[in-house]
Amino acid sequence: SLPKKERDSQTQTIIADIQKKITDAFEVFDHECNKTVDVREIGTIIRSLGCCPSESELHDLLAEVEEEEPTGYIRLEKFLPMMTKVLMERRYRPIPEDILLRAFEVLDENKCGHLTKEELVKYMTEEGEPFTQEEMEEMLSAAVDPETNTVRYRDYITMMVVDEN
Amino acid sequence: MGCGTSVTGSRAKKSERAIKAAILIQRWYRCYMARLEMRRQYALSIFQSIEYAEEQAQLQLSSFFTFMLDHFTHLNVTDTGSDVQLLEYERMIEVPDSYRGPRLSFPLTVADTNSLLHAFKDQQHLHARYVLQLLHETKKLLKQMPNIIHLSTSYSKEITICGDLHGKLDDLLLIFYKNGLPSEENPYLFNGDFVDRGENSTEILIILFAFLLVYPNHLHLNRGNHEDHIVNLRYGFTKEVMKKYRSHGKKILNLLQDVYSWLPLATVIDSKVLIVHGGISDTTDLDFLNLFKRNKMKSVLRPPRQDIAVKGMTRPSSSSSHRRQYTSDLLDVGKHMCLLHDGVNSGPLLEARYLESSVCMPSMPSELTAKEWKQVVDILWSDPKNQNGCTPNKVRGGGCYFGPDVTARLLKRYNLKMLIRSHECKQEGYEISHDGQVITIFSASNYYEDGSNRGAYLKLNPDLIPRFVQYQVSKCTRKRTLHQRVSVVEWAALKSLREKLYSRRSELIAAFRQYDPNYTGRISATEWASAMESVLHLDLPWRTLRSRLVQLAPDGSVEYLSCFNDLEIEPAIKEVQPALVETLYRYRTDLEIIFNIIDKDHSGLISIEEFRQTWKLFNSHLKIDIDDESIDKLARSIDFNKDGNIDFNEFLEAFHVVNKFENK
């Protein structure tokens, strides 16, 4: 392996790179161009950087970067070190396709390869970290197969993954 | 499934697994949506950056255009006071029997507005004579109005307020469909920016003015920053008029200049709600605004003369640490005008012999003071921001960014409840800011691209509580998923951006090569982002956009030439060097404007000599590095039939970027 000096320098480069990436994503929402973003956009920024926290994990992250007296804004100054650590430690990794598939299979009690619209709505809006009506409608618009009026989750997942790339 | 345990136990365990699965799916979904949202945001910021950068660029050229306008006197027909009588238009312009469009009879009635709506839905045009008569009558009416109109809701239940329309006729028709036509029971206020960008600015103006004449107390108009003939030169309205009205277009545009300047600047409802197109500044003085002669302000780009010593042109610069800190300042335009006319550095400008009149001081709106000018510009160009203070609006080049404290102070000073304004495109068609004290209302849906945003209007009842109605004109009936909608907008934004890259190709490659002396074709992401910003000054999140603009090598470095891969310019002229082609492509909008100014008889042709001289003027003004010989060669080669004339529409058509792999 490399001597310490070179390893350190490599790490420095990696950190610098990560910080630039974070700053760029932050700046997309920095409408006033003063290194602050609306607190409601933090979730989007964190997730767009490749992390996949749950709502409650997001809540905890927010608590770390909010001001003593919440102003409704988050400063880059506070966000950057927190987010750098998150990325360096590779926390909140995205969910692999197969794990996602298994999750749907758990919900599919009858093991028939699809969920009914009502089943999906029930789980998503009543369990876990419930969806808002808007989120639910948006998911349904893409997930429901118009021909069978059911959620053929295997196809849905494949489509979403392809879409992303 | 457990066996040997109680039924409830296994059910509980199953339920626990289901909840975990649900959370996992929700987590995943929210991440997916967030990434979509990010893509949408940067697509919009691409559009916005390009839009504002172009506004900036126009400011640079404004002194040049003004100079051009001043020296083509046929465009400077000012209203000397002896109005053409309405009937004289009938004498001057004949409407042939073969004309199948609407025939207006003054004074206008509902029959006329109905026939206009009907005709425009059928994509007909109104004959030039009626347009001129309509503008004539509109000007007469507007002249009687004060600068600030005071309305009351006591006579009707609600007043409907609409924002920017920007020539989108479909949106106006949709509003009328949903909300009813203007009438005594259904009053409307249109808050500026009726024209430019969309294709039916003419028709929108005609409809609005017609309703104004029929219901002068129930249809109200505020001036917007696009109700400005110089802004129209760049953003499409001038072109639209010239295209639709070949013979009388210039007359129409002249008359329109006056009509614009007589549009009211602001409206106040029930002494509580202030409505202006852009916003306010910390120096906005409503009493002052109400008193001066508003028609002195013909165009924001003809500011009052400055008696300051000439310093030379300021160019926009950008340091990577501060976004939008451009240094141009509208007031500098005044200095440029002095520069042009004092003969300093303007040898070739003054000697262009083909110019008709001798160079003289332009007929400036001499009574417009700097204070008056600033008050109006602030009203028409400012944008709200979320943090306190009032700073110059450097992005647009005019007006301010005003904070909640500025709003609060103004509302308190005049005992108002809220400010309604437009001027900025909002995703949902409207936005509430400054703790409910400022409302932005924007009525052109799909402003940047099909699916980019909704439009909205608001209804104000006597309690002054606004109710918003949103809509979106849609080409397809099937509801698209968010992903599909974002993809469309994103694709359009990236296409726009790629064309911009292409138009600065040589400069970009030179900037990249600074980091790549050995011509490996690769540079780091940081270097790439730096180079991009240094040339383009668009202040975009280049690192985030990187993967969508260029190819990346396995080690993450950028193959910088790959962003030019899919595009090529199709020039009709073979012997012209690529650098010249690129420059002409980049300035094609400006050239078009200039051509339109020069082409006195609207024939679509200008002489080779005029082209050559114009280019030289342009060149010396912008300090573009193209030698005269190349231009001469170009001029000769564009003259396809060698008759000494250039068909500039053909010429401009030829310079557009083609995506090699696009299906035509």
UniProtKB/TrEMBL annotation, chain A:
Keywords: Repeat. Transmembrane segments: none annotated. GO terms for molecular function: calcium ion binding. GO terms for cellular component: sperm principal piece. InterPro entries: EF-hand-dom_pair, EF_hand_dom. Residues 17-52, 95-130 form the EF-hand domain. PANTHER family: DYNEIN REGULATORY COMPLEX PROTEIN 8. This is EF-hand calcium binding domain 2. It comes from Gopherus evgoodei (Goodes thornscrub tortoise). The gene is EFCAB2.
UniProtKB/TrEMBL annotation, chain B:
Its EC number is 3.1.3.16. The keyword DNA repair does not apply. Gene3D superfamilies: 3.60.21.10, EF-hand. GO terms for molecular function: calcium ion binding; iron ion binding; manganese ion binding; protein serine/threonine phosphatase activity. It catalyses: O-phospho-L-seryl-[protein] + H2O = L-seryl-[protein] + phosphate; O-phospho-L-threonyl-[protein] + H2O = L-threonyl-[protein] + phosphate. The keyword Glycoprotein does not apply. Residues 503-538, 586-621, 626-661 form the EF-hand domain. Keywords: Calcium, Hydrolase, Magnesium, Manganese, Metal-binding, Protein phosphatase, Repeat. GO terms for biological process: detection of stimulus involved in sensory perception. Its cofactor is Mn(2+); Mg(2+). Belongs to the PPP phosphatase family. This is Serine/threonine-protein phosphatase with EF-hands. It comes from Gopherus evgoodei. The gene is PPEF1.
